[in-house]
Amino acid sequence: MSSLIWDAYSPQMKDRIQNMLFAKHFTKELAEAKELFLSQSKSSDDCMRLYVLVDKQDGVICDAAYQVLGSSMLIALLETLCALLIRKNHMQAQRISKELIAKELGIGKDFFVAIEPYIERILKLMDLVLQPLAHISVKDVPDTPIPEIMEKGDYIKQFFTMPLKEKIQYIEHVIEEDIRPYIELDSGGVEVMDLKGNIVKIQYSGNCLSCPSAIGGTLSYIQETLQSKIHPDLIVEPDLSHEIIN
After folding, report:
1. Could you state, in order of their start, the residue ranges of all structural domains in the chain?
2. For residues 25 and 48, what is the distance between their CA atoms, to the nearest angstrom?
3. d(CA 105, CA 100)
4. Per-residue pLDDT tens over the stretch 101-115
5. What CA–CA distance (Å, rounded) separates 7 from 10?
6. CATH architecture of 3-133
7. What CA dihedral angle connects 176, 110, 112 and 179, to 10 degrees?
8. Comparing C-alpha atoms, which of 238, 234, 223, 128 is closest to residue 179?
9. What is the pLDDT of residues 180-233, one digit of tens each?
10. Which CATH superfamily is 159-238 part of?
């Protein structure tokens, strides 16, 4: 591989390439033994194949795998796609976007232009593997899969001395970059309503209004992300004027 190409890769891309987890394949016999539905697809040139094992009862993807003959860039993209597919039902998986994959790999705007055609190729492969799953009913929408919280690092120590408008801009930015993309996978939404002292008021929309995780795991994720990225004293409170159905 050219050192120039390798140097252009983000640390996340290099990690995916050097620590492959999903470079394998599934067989019909394996799926039957696990009582799962196997769907597979291949690219038009047969250089890439994608496999998913799916729960027949609720359409949740239990495992994913790929085979590829091609550049290391495709390996990084397919590793990321497989990681994103797992624990999502097939309806959630359809909402995985180019932008989300690029974000997971830490790809900047300039490099995104170069890598976008490759992302489109693997998303086309994903569309093909999801098509046979349409007959599986999605009974209970699982909690939106969200990434692990990073360790608290260099938060904004002067945050509470900033003007209110600037503080809300920081909060909005973190929600847009690190929270909203994952909530939208489940057709949910979240908006910042106000900031009073250290209390961040938010309002849910879409599927979040009927999801118990909105006052559980999802709420914890939002709060811990804001604490890590902005300030550890921030507390998030949702507007519960719309009932969360348990």
Report:
1. 3-133, 159-238
2. 11
3. 9
4. 998 898 888 888 889
5. 8
6. Alpha-Beta Complex (3.90)
7. -10
8. 223
9. 888 887 778 899 999 999 999 999 888 787 777 777 878 888 999 899 889 999
10. Fe-S cluster assembly (FSCA) (3.30.300.130)
